[in-house]
Design a protein that fits this description.
about 220 residues; mainly alpha; two-stranded antiparallel ribbon; two-stranded antiparallel sheet; 8 helices
């Protein structure tokens, strides 16, 4: 069950489309097929927003602190693998230089990979969670992830209990802060490209209805 983020998308220039759909609905026409197609168009546009890292306006870049934190966590994950543990052991007790060089090379590779990840796609879960739900009267697009809303609108995260937030940053380190500010990166954005596709879809649906004699 999709629980859409509470966001209003201003669909400029789509008033005639809405009027057509309202007219068809008033005549008992089943609009689920056309709303499904509209949902697919919207999800496609939102997916493109992730790939472009913001449309029409680019999202704010990740901070160097965030990139370093992601890199440290990814490196920690590697050192907990069989290969990582072996290199760690060898660098401390075995072939120090060779293993240390291999470990440094792997760490550099991990940090380069993490820093090149697209914004809002470190794990890819948010992008993959975008879905739609269509019925005979409407279509809803959104995400069920708890952190979806704050990435859309931005905001400040404060501790619910206590005086500070404890944030693990990798390497066994934890920093304490009073709050964390998340910049708005609107990914639920429909551009003129999607608007034109929606208009075309509704026109085709309307023509099909008329050609079948459902006037």
């Amino acid at each position: 069950m999709v629980k859409p983020i509470d966001v209003k998308i201003e669909a400029q220039g789509l008033k005639p489309v809405i009027n057509v759909l309202s007219n068809l609905a008033s005549r008992g026409q089943n609009l689920r097929p056309v709303f499904r197609k509209i949902g697919e168009i919207m999800v496609g546009g939102i997916t493109e927003n992730f790939e472009e890292e913001g449309r029409p306006n680019k999202w704010q870049k990740r901070s160097s602190f965030t990139n370093e934190s992601y890199g440290n966590k990814a490196y920690d994950n590697f050192t907990n693998t069989k290969r990582g543990k072996q290199l760690m052991y060898n660098s401390l007790f075995g072939e120090n230089k060779r293993s240390s060089n291999a470990l440094d090379k792997k760490k550099s590779s991990i940090f380069d990979s993490v820093s090149s990840n697209k914004i809002l796609q470190n794990s890819g879960r948010l992008k993959q969670s975008i879905n739609f739900e269509a019925n005979a009267n409407s279509v809803a697009v959104g995400s069920t992830l708890i952190y979806a809303r704050i990435h859309q609108f931005g905001g400040v995260i404060k501790p619910k209990n206590g005086n500070c937030l404890c944030i693990p940053v990798g390497g066994g380190k934890i920093i304490k802060v009073k709050s964390v500010k998340i910049p708005a990166r609107p990914y639920l954005v429909i551009t003129d490209k999607e608007n034109r596709q929606i208009v075309s879809t509704v026109k085709d649906f309307y023509k099909e209805v008329l050609s079948n004699g459902n006037r």
